[in-house]
Amino acid sequence: MTPAAPRSPDHLTLALPKGRILEEAVALLARAGLPLTLPEKSRALRHEFPGVTVLELRNQDVPVYVDLGVADAGIVGKDVLIESGRTVYEPVDLGFAACHLSLIREVGASGPIGRVATKYPRSARAYLAARGIPAEVVKLSGNIELAALTGLADAVVDLVQTGSTLRANHLEEIDVLYHSSARLVVNRAALKLRRERLRPLIERLRELTGSGRPGTATDGE
């Protein structure tokens, strides 16, 4: 494998997720002073701008690229960040793409929880262990709510935005595991090597979002 050419200290590589977060991420970063525009629809996965390279990735891959230093920084949902278990600096809660991860059951269900279905097994296991619930966790990829409706699981752990899907399927939230929104994440080494680019960007994003310091994502915390 041919090693990548070293990057200039004043050049940033950003990992941005495809889908609903991308448009808001690009708009916010442009307001923060980066020369970005929304990439035109194409098969390109890497987009070059003056002093900035954007890597367009799947949500789940953003923390990996940032943690391993391929990208200097990125934007990703807190839910994805926690589930990844990656260690990155998380200086700004950007506020958009807000939702929460909840424990969900059929309305009126009251029996013991023996099996939980979810796309978020790391978060679900941590939640259940903290409450002493010895339930089996089953990872699914599709419509998680269906697991509760068909009896595959006694409960599900899934993201909730408006709750309309739950109401339409006679489901209800039993508990909220945590709230999620889009976060700026930064590689620790890059924070030093590209300090002159990253520090002003972080401060400007804090000004634009009114955000403090949400902290560091370490082992899912």
From TrEMBL:
Task: For this entry, list what GO says about its biological process.
Answer: L-histidine biosynthetic process
Q: Which CDD domains match?
A: PBP2_HisGs
Name its pathway.
Answer: Amino-acid biosynthesis; L-histidine biosynthesis; L-histidine from 5-phospho-alpha-D-ribose 1-diphosphate: step 1/9
Please provide, alphabetically and separated by semicolons, the GO molecular function terms listed in this UniProt record.
ATP binding; ATP phosphoribosyltransferase activity
Where in the cell is the protein located? Cytoplasm
Arranged from A to Z, the UniProt key words for this protein are: Amino-acid biosynthesis, ATP-binding, Cytoplasm, Glycosyltransferase, Histidine biosynthesis, Nucleotide-binding, Transferase
Q: Which reaction does it catalyse?
A: 1-(5-phospho-beta-D-ribosyl)-ATP + diphosphate = 5-phospho-alpha-D-ribose 1-diphosphate + ATP
Please indicate if the UniProt record lists rRNA-binding as a keyword: no
Question: Can you tell which superkingdom this protein's organism belongs to?
Answer: Bacteria
Database matches in InterPro entries:
ATP_PRibTrfase_cat (IPR013820), ATP_PRibTrfase_CS (IPR018198), ATP_PRibTrfase_HisG (IPR001348), ATP_PRibTrfase_HisG_short (IPR024893)
The ATP phosphoribosyltransferase catalytic domain sits at 58-206
Give the residues annotated as coiled coil.
Answer: none
One Gene Ontology CC term in the entry: cytoplasm
| Pfam families assigned to the protein according to its UniProt record, in alphabetical order | HisG
Please state which protein family the record places this protein in. Answer: Belongs to the ATP phosphoribosyltransferase family. Short subfamily.
The UniProt comment on domains reads: Lacks the C-terminal regulatory region which is replaced by HisZ.
Assembly and partners are described as: Heteromultimer composed of HisG and HisZ subunits.
Q: Which NCBIfam families match?
A: hisG
UniProt protein name: ATP phosphoribosyltransferase
This protein's species is Deinococcus phoenicis
Q: Which classification does the entry list for the species?
A: Bacteria, Thermotogati, Deinococcota, Deinococci, Deinococcales
